[in-house]
Amino acid sequence: MTGTVLTQGDGRLRVESRLWDVFAEQQLSGFGYTTTRQNWRRIAHIIADEIYKRITGEDGYFDTRIVYIAEAGSQAKRTKRLAIMDQDGANNRFLTDGRALVLTPRFSPTVQEITYLSYANGTPRVYLFNIDTGQQEVVGDFPGMTFAPRFSPDGNRVVMSRAENGVSNLYSLDLRTRQPTRLTTSQAIDTSPCFAPDGSKIVFNSDRGGSQQLYIMGANGGEARRISFGSGKYGTPVWSPRGDQIAFTKIDGGSFFIGVMHPDGSGERLLTRDFLVEGPTWAPNGRVLMYFRQSPSDSRGYGGSARLYSIDLTGSNQREVTTPQDASDPAWSPLLR
User: Fold this and answer.
1) Whether 92 and 152 share a structural domain
2) Side-chain-side CA neighbours of residue 188 (13 Å)
3) Is residue 337 part of a domain?
């Protein structure tokens, strides 16, 4: 049970919250924050994280943001913009103007930068976007197409796919020296790389074995080991911040699924199923996933709305996260503080 007091003075708010054990008749914890009126929602999220941790023993995820792709228009003429919001859908704002198609945004560990794919200037390239300044820059001068970027846990590298001559391999770019390192040398489509939280390994999907499956290799490349062995095709793997699970998309029997498995490939569980579900992303405590769900479009290319949803790791408590427009490709930030 909680009690919260808000007092106002000189344009500022004092927020105090106490967590009580009703049965033991004692206070478990208490917090107090002074802030401007504009920050009251942020303070409420911080307090919610404290209460969540005191009750469950797990870190919270309320004081976080989501970056995603805001979509509008028919499927034949779709406008896609970078957008950012609080994890509950509040404080939504657009980061790009929609003149260039953008896809797959991902936060840096500092939450100050986003890496993403953009078709600006007509050539698909991986970009960096600074949230504070709005500055955008291309990541590396690679021939061919670069896509599916993601930061390393220390924020010093971006790993991505590079497509050339009908194949796609993985590359890592050091953001300090701008020196690229080639990580795979297959004659297949290697893509969607994601670091383990300790930075020692990378999980990715590849069709090198004849169908699209999940593989793990060292962060600097080397031999890759397949970890998915169920029916269907696997893609878009994302390592949990706790390191104990990998989320993925699965296509099997004409349906799309969001599922999780252990890094050794064991314990596969499917959490949700629909016409199209894609793009899983983890809350920073590794207990909740967000993804997007798209409905079918009609023969003229209309309909096919895409919306964001969250779901508990157990497969329960599935709910829509409200956005002003259609939304896809969500990415969850680390805790802001």
Assistant:
1) yes
2) 15
3) no
The count of domains in the chain is 2
| Residue 251, both tokens | 């296509």
pLDDT, tens digit (0-9, with 9 covering 90-100), for 93-148: 999 999 999 999 999 999 999 999 999 888 889 999 999 999 999 987 788 889 99
Q: Which of 72-76, 92-96, 106-110, 150-154 is least confident?
A: 72-76
CA distance 66 to 194: 18
176 within 8 A of 182, measured Cβ to Cβ = no
Q: How far is CA 26 from CA 2, 52, 71, 307, 308, in A?
A: 12, 18, 50, 43, 40
Rounded distance, CA 151 to CA 131, Å? Answer: 15
Query: Among 82, 108, 140, 57, which Cα is nearest to 336's?
Result: 108
DSSP-based three-state secondary structure for 253: coil
Same domain, 9 and 87: no
* Structural domain that includes position 21: 2-56
Label the pairing between strands 167-174 and 157-164. Answer: antiparallel
